[in-house]
Amino acid sequence: MKTRVLLCFALVLLSCASAWAQQAPTQPLTFWYEYTVNPGKEDQFLELVKTVGAPVRDKLMADGVVLAWGVQTPVLRVPGNATHSIWYAVADWSGVEKVQNAMQAQIAKLTEEAAKGSVAKKGGTAAQGPMDRVKDIADVSKTHDYLTRDLVFKVTQTAPPAGLLPYTRFNFVKVKPGKAAEYRKAWERYNKPVLDKLLADGVIGAYGLSVEEVRTSGEFTHFTWWDTPDLAAMEKVRAAFIADRDHRSQEEQSAIVDLFTGLTDPDAARSEVDHAVIFRAPSMK
Description:
Blueprint: H1 18-23, E1 29-35, H2 42-62, E2 66-74, E3 84-90, H3 93-121, H4 130-137, E4 144-155, E5 167-173, H5 180-190, H6 192-200, E6 206-212, E7 222-228, H7 232-246, H8 250-263, E8 270-280
Antiparallel strand pairs: 1-3, 1-4, 2-3, 2-8, 4-6, 5-7, 5-8, 6-7
């Protein structure tokens, strides 16, 4: 997802295991933490993720609360955009609360342990708690959290291979006021069948049509996302959409363009491609 906008999701939600597909709700939530990591601190940031947040999210995923989680970085660097996004997917708001409470407890525990360790050193360098470490590693003034919901969500029934680090394409649009229902109807008529075929053929591992559950950005209203095992698959997605439009008459092609142009602000459209550096789903070890 536009890393400046999403931590994502999403994202997002990415390729997910069949076990997740069997239990996942039709409209899951994804919580995104978006960070701008200081140059040269990338490895420290990932180590912080692995030692602080990962144990919490892994435990909650084993308990069935977290559906999947990961860390993404943008393929294209854009001035002002975040450098890393941490995301986790849950079924509903109760899942968000459980993750938030567990993370607060984890941070409090590690902060207390760091303080006790500093006292034990008697004059040695004070150990930092996790929040102090974040302040050293990232520009916290640029941190942005997002909560998104998939209005449409589909995932492959094939479990992802161990070590999979998928790519995710995000297409952001700004739907005109009062046109959300019409936009979704048009999207499901003209875009969803193409994505369904790509999913069935194994080109993409998952896709969705999403919105912010809590509106914090005016830059977009809806975004489409899909994930692939590699960048080569992005060409297949592009070719599939071109083929779908090309087989239609010129009149129908023009009508589709006019429809989406009339429902959205073309100048506000943006895209992003992110690459997972950490990706966890239930079947992955």
